[in-house]
Amino acid sequence: MADMTPPPGAAAFLDAHGWGGAQILPVAGDASFRRYFRAIEAGRQAILMDAPPPHEDPRPFIAIARWLVDHGFAAPEILASDLDQGLVLLEDFGDDRLREAVDAAPDDELSLYAPAIDLLVRLRTHPAGPVPPYDRAVLKREAALFVEWYCPAVGIEPDLAGWDAAWDAVFDHAIALAPVTVLRDYHAENLMLVGSERSLGLLDFQDALAGHPAYDLVSLLQDARRDVDPAVEAAMLARYRTASDAVADAGNDFMNAYHVLGAQRNAKILGIFTRLWQRDGKPHYPTMCPRVWRYLERDLAQPVLAPVAAWFAANVPADRRGDPLAIAA
């Protein structure tokens, strides 16, 4: 369980920025070293992000938040920051997440997801922000988390040369000719429904890169944290493609990119969730791996991924695909 005691400098930081005497309540941690608290004072409230150096650097979050706001997207306003301590005071978007809204009204899943698709359509109309490229080297490094963490955990000695060759054969499909800002953790638990109009507020975008617009669609529609029905995935992909540039999405190019990035992201997540269990002592993450495997296998069934599918068929038997903690037991 994460320690949710406020950081030692929190009270002084709040006092220095006009929030003296605020009550500091834990909100949540996440898969990183970041922690979040709610500061409540005199009828107002804000979110205190604790992003402690050297593990975390809040500068990218601040820079991307400002870029998003400047381009008409709802990122939290930065109220104050102390970069040496890794403390940032943010606008509070509340607790109403898309995840819980969909869970409470599953019959409304399509209408609830539609604004999230429309936001990505708008994001695509802007050239990428001031972020590093999501290039072949990054894609390859992320995919390698599967063979570095998942495979050893379930007793597999993978064919590493074959792994690299398989991905090298498909990654051309995942490189954008006109990169956009890819938020990278764009899913139902990071999308807030803000205010009476329940407009979408964005969180957890500090790792944004300039890459293919299909990546955030994968994050949303192949969500590691909740089951997205294949029919919903198909309907939302159709909505996106209808509303976005028909020329750029002509033929199978866009869907090939979607499935290659889906396979890459899902392989990466299997590695990350295994690492969160083994290295960071967070055993609830492996329980989500069976869902991630279902998404991965749907992507691997696409012809564009034949080389990668062949590698998985040769290296990962069916009984090694699932919750790595349970398989290793």
Structure in words:
There is one protein chain. This protein is of the alpha+beta class. The protein is 43% helix and 14% strand. The chain has 13 helices and nine strands. The protein has helices at 10-16, 59-70, 98-104, 109-124, 136-143, 145-153, 160-168, 214-221, 230-243, 253-278, 289-300, 306-315, 324-328, and strands at 23-29, 35-41, 44-50, 78-82, 87-91, 180-182, 191-194, 199-202, 209-211. The strands form three sheets. A five-stranded antiparallel β-sheet has the order 1-2-3-5-4, sandwiched between helices. Strands 6-9 form a two-stranded antiparallel sheet. Strand 4 and strand 5 (87-91) form a beta hairpin. Helix 10 packs antiparallel against helix 11. The longest helix has 26 residues, at 253-278. It starts with 9 loop residues before the first helix and ends with a helix. The model has no long low-confidence stretch (mean pLDDT 93).
As a whole number of angstroms, the C-alpha radius of gyration is 20 Å
What is the 3D shape?
Answer: globular
- Arithmetic mean pLDDT: 93
First-to-last CA distance = 21 Å
User: How much beta, percentage-wise?
Assistant: 5-15%
Biggest sheet details: 5 strands, antiparallel
pLDDT under 50 segments (min length 5)?
none
Number of strands: 9
Q: Give, in order, the helices and strands.
A: HEEEHEEHHHHHEEEEHHHHHH
The main sheet orders its strands as 1-2-3-5-4
